[in-house]
Design goal:
Elements: H1 2-25, E1 33-42, E2 45-56, E3 62-69, E4 72-81, E5 87-93, E6 99-108, E7 111-119, E8 124-129
Antiparallel strand pairs: 1-2, 2-3, 3-4, 4-5, 5-6, 6-7, 7-8
């Protein structure tokens, strides 16, 4: 009986706090997009430019990035992933939205081993091979 009196408050505390803790973990908001703007001051004139836009999927992976230079599209990329969250394709677009080139990645055991870059007509421009040294 003495032991029960000692542990009862602890057991009650755990029973109350555990459900509260699990509820807090699910409340972290998922980010769908991020827009960064910059203000520049020249003398008395303030100029505001969009610097970048980043879009995320439901898993939190970046699926699109657009960077701006003085308010105009400078670089534009889209990314594709496999079921294991490895980036397997990257597309680069010009400011008008036309495909410039794309890269495809070969991933084995979560490690990138090859990158092939293609032009917009699917002609190979270059290949890279990755070799790792491990402990």
């Amino acid at each position: 009986m003495q032991i029960l009196k000692l542990f009862l408050p602890s057991i009650l505390f755990i029973m109350i706090c555990l459900p509260l803790r699990s509820q807090d973990q699910g409340k972290k908001p998922k980010i769908k997009s991020l827009v960064v703007t910059e203000e520049k001051y020249d003398m008395l004139i303030k100029k505001q430019y969009k610097e970048s836009e980043t879009y995320f999927d439901e898993k939190g992976r970046i699926v699109e990035e657009i960077s701006y230079k003085q308010g105009k599209v400078n670089k534009h990329f889209k990314y594709h992933y496999d079921a294991e969250d490895n980036k397997i394709k990257e597309e680069e677009f010009d400011p008008s939205g036309k495909l410039i080139e794309f890269s495809e990645y070969v991933v084995e055991n979560g490690v990138r081993i090859e990158k092939t870059v293609f032009d917009a007509n699917k002609k190979i421009k270059s290949k890279k091979y990755y070799q790792y040294t491990v402990f």
